[in-house]
Amino acid sequence: MSFLSIQHVSHTYFTKKTAKTALSGISLDVEEGRFLSFLGPSGCGKTTLLSIIAGLLEPSSGEVLVEGRPIREAQEPMIGYMLQQDYLFPWKTIEENILLGLRILKKDNELSRRKTFKLLKEIGLEGTEKQYPKQLSGGMKQRIALVRTLAAEPKLLLLDEPFSALDFQTKLKLEDLVSATLKSFSKTAILVTHDIGEAIAMSDTIFLFSTNPGRIYKQIDVPEVLRNLTPFNARAHPEYSSLFQTVWKELENLEKQTPSY
């Protein structure tokens, strides 16, 4: 049994005058501990699918199962969601922000707090507990958002372009940090991105999406030699350049197949 199973998921957005099908017939199975990327042009339904997996949006048809059960029937929250914006509460201290999820879930006990502060130390932000978000850089705030997300110990982490608003140097550092952190906790993760390099450097498998409506166009498995490297070092490997060209050409083919309106 797969850890995550997406079965024949389709979704249509309705207005009073129109109906727009964002996704059509999406099916895939994900083993625990794997890192996937969803890559494709704008409007191909990647974020819609992520919202469906998170249980934030009910699909028009099909279902999503986590450990064999519909996500809405989970006994406890199983999914963490990390977005492009950090969504830290500016009037709360860093300590209050990272413990917020634990308090909501009624898991704010001594053991959970110790684990959370240990993670804060491991990502290099020990000593920021009494500071406020406005005192931190964008990259530091995204690291705080990661701690807050992992503090609740989700089994599945959803990443919706979490590095796209950062400068390139900070982005590369955070790719390494997030990758190492998820591997150390054996987390299953799905990344939505427009960045080919990011998808290759961080993922085990890349799913290319076509548009109008959104479908899985192709599955590309990242070579093991790249998966065993940090994202930063993977970018310097010859296999990276070769795979980048392959993915680039596939996306170009998709663009040619997409009708213009």
From TrEMBL:
It holds the Pfam family ABC_tran. One of its GO terms (molecular function) is ATP binding. InterPro entries: AAA+_ATPase, ABC_transporter-like_ATP-bd, ABC_transporter-like_CS, ABC_transporter_ATP-bind, P-loop_NTPase. SUPFAM superfamilies: P-loop containing nucleoside triphosphate hydrolases. Keywords: ATP-binding, Nucleotide-binding, Transport. Residues 4-238 form the ABC transporter domain. This is Spermidine/putrescine ABC transporter ATP-binding protein.
